[in-house]
């Protein structure tokens, strides 16, 4: 089994990849990657810096928390509204553009085909998969809003951003085909999640079931992700390029386990990984459904 720093795609004289042949009906001029080989080699040579960024991210957040300990919280209502609205719009467009390729292969060629064939590196989907990786870096900014507004921050919030960033970047090193399902599900979940955040910051009083729906979508994403891991482990003809998918299963499996714990944390692990007594007390006073809904970051 290859190590995390050993790659096959575009190595030596290899220029071929096992990818989809789906052709988009239309594409915008910028929706393409001009040098797919150069980008892939860049990810292979520098993916480990996603870990460096993760460490610096954690240290920076802790520093800001320290600096804010005796300061009043910032409101940041307008910046937060624009931030959430922008990420919601990006996620919706990304879902529509990226999932066209994956959806076509899944429903027309079957699960095994979609597990073994990555998106065409010359297609629109490849462009949006690159933007998806970049967005994981941008989304680290979510935490800055939380600490500047002095909202409760749990350890699993850090872990979520770090795990997704590292896994996404490393998957890009070999165009991991099962990652298409992860990208599609994540785009969908974030389309709903950031739209919900934006509407809440704007001042709309949404019913409780809306928050519950966001939680259900996040949890469903985890279960579907586990299902894809099982499908991948059972596939016999994944091809050489997609062996990275199998060796990456433990990482993605832990990530999906995190999603489950993050979703049911207020019920099953109340108080664990929570910084400060305020949130512990508040969670203890809510009923079961209110506790589950409480995982949605407070936007007001």
Main sheet overview: none
SSE string, helix = H, strand = E?
Answer: HHHHHHHHHHHHH
Helical content, roughly? 55-70%
Oligomer: single chain
Rounded to an integer in angstroms, the radius of gyration calculated over CA atoms is 20 Å
General form: globular
| Total beta strand runs | 0
Helical segment count = 13
Which strand-content bin applies to the residues?
Answer: under 5%
The first-to-last residue Cα distance is 49 Å
Number of domains: 1
Overall mean pLDDT: 78
Catalytic activity: a very-long-chain acyl-CoA + malonyl-CoA + H(+) = a very-long-chain 3-oxoacyl-CoA + CO2 + CoA
Enzyme class: transferase
Subcellular location: Membrane
Pfam family, one: ELO
Gist of the model:
The protein is mainly α and 300 residues long.
Give your account of this protein's structure.
There is one protein chain. The radius of gyration is 20 Å and the shape is globular. The N and C termini lie far apart (49 Å). It contains 13 helices and no strands. The chain has one domain. It is mostly helical. Helix 5 (124-138) runs antiparallel to helix 7. It has helices at residues 36-46, 49-68, 77-109, 111-116, 124-138, 141-148, 155-171, 179-202, 208-234, 243-247, 249-268, 277-285, 288-293. Belongs to the ELO family. This is Elongation of very long chain fatty acids protein. It is an enzyme of class 2 (transferase).
């Amino acid at each position: 089994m290859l190590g995390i720093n050993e790659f096959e795609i575009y190595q030596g004289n290899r220029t071929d990849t096992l990818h989809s042949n789906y052709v988009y009906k239309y594409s915008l001029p910028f929706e393409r990657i001009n040098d797919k080989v150069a980008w892939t080699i860049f990810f292979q040579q520098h993916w480990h810096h996603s870990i460096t960024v993760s460490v610096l991210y954690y240290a920076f957040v802790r520093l800001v928390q320290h600096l804010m300990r005796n300061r009043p919280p910032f409101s940041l209502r307008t910046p937060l509204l624009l931030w959430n609205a922008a990420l919601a719009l990006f996620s919706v467009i990304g879902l529509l553009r990226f999932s066209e390729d994956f959806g076509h292969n899944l429903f027309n060629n079957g699960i095994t085909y979609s597990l073994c064939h990555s998106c065409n590196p010359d297609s629109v989907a490849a462009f949006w998969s690159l933007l998806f990786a970049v967005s994981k870096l941008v989304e680290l900014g979510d935490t800055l809003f939380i600490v500047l507004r002095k909202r409760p921050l749990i350890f699993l919030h850090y872990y979520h951003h770090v795990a997704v960033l590292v896994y996404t970047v490393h998957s890009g090193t070999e165009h991991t085909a099962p990652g298409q399902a992860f990208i599609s599900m994540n785009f969908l979940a974030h389309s709903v999640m950031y739209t919900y955040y934006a509407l809440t910051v704007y001042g709309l009083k949404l019913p409780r079931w809306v928050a519950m729906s966001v939680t259900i979508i996040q949890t469903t994403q985890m279960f579907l992700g586990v299902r894809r891991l099982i499908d991948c482990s059972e596939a016999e003809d994944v091809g050489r390029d997609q062996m990275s998918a199998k060796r990456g299963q433990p990482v993605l499996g832990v990530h999906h386990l995190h999603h489950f714990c993050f979703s049911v944390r207020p019920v099953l692990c109340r108080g664990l990984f929570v910084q400060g007594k305020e949130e512990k007390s508040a969670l203890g006073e809510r009923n079961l459904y209110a506790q589950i809904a409480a995982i949605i970051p407070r936007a007001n």
